[in-house]
């Protein structure tokens, strides 16, 4: 296996590769790739009057970036107004994003735009929404008033940027600021879908690893959340309520997808603690979705619970993964394969690749959740700085680590499996009969005491008159006799767990069940099969002697002694057959 493992000296290439990919993505997200706007886009920051009736906060002629309005909620409006620029722009509009509130826009006291008033009246969750407010030709210098009516206890505590400009230019500016999440989110969704289809096919038709299906689900969930959080679905479909709901469902499903993947792929997670964690995640999702759909409590109000559960599970995962890596070194000399990732292996390096990706992802998740809490509860204008950049980079590293782990271990698994089959064929197969040879039989006998919980049965078989055939007809006929008998043995005892040739004219059959009736039935079938062979050919007459011994469940019996007992009974029958031939 050493020929197929990556050297420890090459492990440092993995973080360097990930760092290089991250730097490329950061460069891709730089303003260097932005397109120049035709008419220009202006963010309306200064000169606002703001009143939040929920907290009583009031500001005059303030920049929105500095307006610490506190919590907006409880159906108490937030009113803000300013004077529009005097510059005239073709197809001019105000474009801004709102959270969990209805919107009314007035121009010099005249209502020109409204959104989500009907949703508010029904008591449903007002979705995230990009408001596009077309302005009349005579807008320059007029006063615009925006009234936001929040319908949650905590709807928002600040303002997203309010853009003034040409609609096409503004859309382009917003999308260019989301280039990185668009790229990574789309990649993860497509990659997850492709991996799901491939892994499902491999699982059904080629005995593939079920963990890959859950890995695909992780990628798709994360990609969906990244695209939804950054409002990218809102630009391609007019279904704000659905995509806001999907954002939360995808977020709530990520911890569940990860824990199921780890349980399916990693033997160290198959214990009651992590089964309980998985059940808890299922219950949280079922409860929150049900409460939302019944319009009892909106799903956005359970975010703090998810953060607490997510951080707790992340710490638990990291500790358990580190413990699993430490215990790998203690199991290197064991027969049993180590399971860490998506393929069984004894490769510590491939497991470390997976571990690195998981730790990077979980650390990034903890960082983003911590920043969210700090900005929301201790900062001001949280919505303006709301992002999940750490989560995006961590997610990419995590999915790539799964891909690399599977790629490395698949190559190793295929190589080792092919080599093992080839060596096993050379070392454990009898050339003449195609049955297991003595070495293979001895190994199986030695392992019977460990593997056979239902006991085991050993049948010792000896072909009669082989020496006579060799002496009178030649060794080539003796070989033919052995070949014909081994074919009969395969046909009659096709249900045996092992058929082998111990050497010369001695054969063995092993059943991993201690049953005398099973042995008698097997020998009766072999007698019938030998009789059929004798009726088809006249060159020699096949006959055999046998003896069997069994070890039933619960008896502490040495398999070697059981075989010797069967062999002794076989020789007793052989003596009887010999006396019968002498009397004839």
UniProtKB/TrEMBL annotation:
One Pfam short name: GGDEF
CDD domains from the UniProt entry: GGDEF
Domain of life assignment: Bacteria
Annotated TM spans: 12-28, 182-204, 210-233, 245-266, 272-294, 306-328, 348-374, 386-409
Domain spans labelled GGDEF: 454-584
Keywords: Membrane, Transmembrane, Transmembrane helix
GO MF entry, a single one: diguanylate cyclase activity
SUPFAM superfamilies referenced in this protein's UniProt entry, alphabetically: Nucleotide cyclase
Listed name of the protein: GGDEF domain-containing protein
């Amino acid at each position: 296996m050493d020929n197929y493992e990556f050297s420890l000296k090459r492990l440092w290439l993995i973080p360097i590769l990930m760092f290089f990919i991250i730097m490329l993505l950061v460069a891709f997200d730089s303003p260097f790739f932005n397109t120049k706007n035709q008419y220009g886009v202006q963010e309306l920051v200064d000169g606002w009057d703001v009143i939040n009736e929920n907290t009583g906060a009031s500001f005059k002629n303030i920049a929105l970036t500095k307006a610490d309005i506190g919590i907006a909620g409880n159906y108490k409006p937030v009113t803000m107004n300013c004077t529009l620029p005097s510059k005239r722009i073709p197809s001019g509009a105000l474009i801004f994003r709102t959270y969990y509130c209805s919107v009314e826009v007035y121009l010099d006291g005249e209502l020109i735009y409204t959104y989500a008033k009907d949703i508010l009246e029904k008591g449903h969750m007002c979705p995230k929404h990009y408001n596009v407010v077309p302005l009349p030709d005579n807008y320059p210098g007029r006063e615009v008033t925006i009234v936001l009516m929040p319908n949650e206890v905590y709807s928002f505590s600040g303002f997203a940027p309010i853009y003034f400009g040409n609609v096409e230019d503004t859309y382009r500016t917003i999308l260019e600021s989301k280039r990185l999440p668009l790229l990574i989110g789309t990649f993860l969704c497509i990659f997850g879908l492709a991996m799901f289809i491939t892994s499902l096919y491999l699982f059904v038709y080629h005995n593939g690893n079920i963990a890959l299906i859950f890995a695909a689900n992780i990628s798709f969930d994360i990609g969906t959340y990244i695209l939804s959080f950054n409002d990218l679905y809102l630009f391609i479909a007019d279904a704000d309520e659905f995509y806001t709901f999907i954002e939360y469902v995808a977020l709530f499903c990520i911890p569940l997808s990860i824990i199921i993947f780890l349980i399916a792929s990693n033997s160290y997670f198959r214990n009651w603690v992590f089964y309980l964690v998985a059940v808890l995640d299922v219950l949280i999702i079922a409860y929150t979705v049900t409460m939302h759909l019944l319009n009892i409590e909106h799903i956005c109000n359970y975010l703090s619970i998810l953060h607490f559960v997510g951080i707790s599970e992340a710490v638990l995962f990291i500790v358990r993964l580190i413990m699993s890596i430490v215990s790998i070194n203690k199991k290197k000399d064991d027969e049993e394969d180590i399971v860490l990732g998506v393929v069984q292996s004894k490769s510590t390096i491939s497991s470390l690749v997976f571990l690195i990706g998981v730790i990077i992802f979980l650390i990034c998740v903890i960082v983003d959740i911590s920043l969210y809490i700090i900005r929301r509860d201790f900062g001001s204008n949280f919505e303006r700085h709301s992002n999940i950049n750490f989560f995006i980079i961590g997610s990419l590293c995590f999915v790539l680590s799964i891909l690399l782990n599977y790629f490395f271990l698949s190559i190793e698994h295929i190589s080792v499996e092919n080599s093992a089959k080839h060596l096993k064929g050379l070392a454990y197969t009898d050339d003449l009969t195609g049955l297991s040879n003595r070495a293979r039989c001895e190994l199986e006998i030695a392992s019977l005491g460990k593997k056979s919980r239902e006991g085991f049965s050993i049948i010792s078989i000896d072909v009669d008159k082989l020496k006579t055939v060799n002496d009178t007809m030649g060794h080539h006929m003796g070989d033919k006799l052995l070949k014909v008998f081994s074919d009969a043995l395969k046909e009659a005892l096709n249900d045996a767990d092992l058929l082998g040739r111990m050497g010369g004219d001695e054969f063995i059959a092993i059943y991993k069940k201690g049953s005398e009736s099973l042995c008698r039935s097997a020998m009766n079938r072999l007698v019938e099969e030998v009789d059929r062979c004798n009726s088809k050919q006249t060159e020699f007459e096949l006959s055999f002697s046998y003896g069997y011994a069994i070890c039933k469940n619960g008896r502490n019996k040495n398999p070697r002694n059981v075989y010797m007992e069967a062999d002794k009974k076989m020789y007793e029958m052989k003596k009887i057959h010999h006396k019968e031939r002498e009397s004839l």
